[in-house]
Amino acid sequence: MSEINGKELQKQLAKEFSSAWDNLKDNEMTEVFNLSEDYKLFMDRGKTERESVKEIMTRAKAAGFISLTEALAKGSITAGDRIYAENKGKAIALFIIGQEDLHNGMRIVGAHLDAPRLDLKAFPLYEDGGLALLKTHYYGGVKKYQWVALPLALHGVIIKNNGEKLEIVIGEDEGDPVFYISDLLPHLAADQMTKKMSEGITGEGLNILIGNIPFNGGDISDKVKLNVLKLLNEKYGIVEEDFTVAEIEAVPAGRARDVGIDRSMVAAHGHDDRVCSYAALKAVLELEAQKSTVVGLFVDKEEVGSMGNTGMQSAFFENVVAELLELQGQTSHLHVRRAMMNSKVLSGDVMPGFDPNYPDVLDKRNGAFIGKGVTIAKYTGARGKGGTNDANAEFVGEIRTLFNKNDVVWQVGELGKVDQGGGGTIAYMLANYGAEVLDCGTPMLSMHAPVELVSKVDLYMTYRAYKAFYIG
Ligand code: MN
Ligand code: MN
């Protein structure tokens, strides 16, 4: 009778998700750090969805992608063609046409470029107490108390009366001024400190300081506001009405930074979800023609429900697929349906990682961990999986096999303990077409905080995962 070695049997039968750092091969440590340097650059160049689309387009063009308009002018497409389709400067899709016809399905990684932030209201500028301020309306799920007492930058566009589009970034260069929302001094915060955290700072209290010097001359009111208007007019040629036709976002000022004495992590604004966007972009740009058409799909408005003509609920993506099908000589709408239905999708979005400071919100057996690689989440949702895509086991199995075959270090994740809260991604919208969709992205800490945190090795494994998925 042979003695069963428990340790050996455990190794054979039990599963333990291990550190991705421990699983790196020969030169991979260097690759992890090199990739992160480029990622930080990507994050610094794209602090809004518009800027991110620009950066993606710049990189795509440099990698030989042509616009859909150019492809349409050519009149046909063949395997290996690299095409991008931009949607109103806020969303973009990159295609590498595959060897098989499009209606056989695509391999898509979909991620979003918008991130929680403060948007200026339509008529934001006012004066109170000798200060000029800008009123804001927060965008997405923010904890309002996190946005006070930190340097802010303003990014956005203003459409002038003559139709000219003015793009502004103030607060990112060393010499730039920054902006600031004040908080109450602790000495006088007796009432505030007894309030719930959701009420201590209010939405209408998130007013950004923009000036203090009064206009010199004339017996008029609101001199500080006037001086701000004067300076804005001198610098940008705008008047107050122009704010009403602008999209200006306040984000934390400053660059993405390494975190930790070992430089293992990156702190930046908007990892959610530019980290998955970057990983998908990097993978797409490196590929040649595959069997299936591969797609990097980067959308807007995820944080506010994917509505609007730049969000995932719009027909943009479907319309572009229809255009490409026509370039392959297939004009029946049935082909569009087939192309969508036969597609395989990784919905790239971030997952909450286990946080030692808040150990109670995740089920440690099913939650993701920082540094344990890319995360697969079979389901998301809230209160009994409400709103989830819940990927089919068959498709999850296909991805598991693929990742294992390619030495992608992966782990499982979920959006929190049962009944603790939850959330969703763009997964279900692509699944509505009948495509197979699995949530697969990067674990992170401080999701939706002004500055969020990811591990470099998780970014690297996300990129490796998407690349393996594209190749299939
Ligand atoms: Mn997200
Ligand atoms: Mn989010």
Notes on the structure:
This protein has 13 helices and 22 strands. With 472 residues, it is an alpha/beta fold. The protein folds into two domains: 15-115 and 269-471, Zn peptidases (Aminopeptidase, 3-Layer(aba) Sandwich), CATH 3.40.630; 117-252, Roll (Aminopeptidase i, Domain 2). It has a nine-stranded mixed β-sheet with strand order 1-2-3-13-4-14-20-16-18, sandwiched between helices. Strands 8-7-10-5-6-9 form a six-stranded antiparallel β-sheet. Strands 11-12-22-21-15 form a five-stranded mixed β-sheet. Strand 21 and strand 22 form a beta hairpin. Helix 2 (28-45) packs across helix 13, helix 8 (271-286) packs across helix 13 (456-471) and helix 9 (316-327) crosses helix 10 (333-341). The longest helix has 18 residues, at 28-45. The mean pLDDT is 96. It binds manganese (II) ion (2 copies). Residues 272, 303, 448 line the site of one manganese (II) ion.
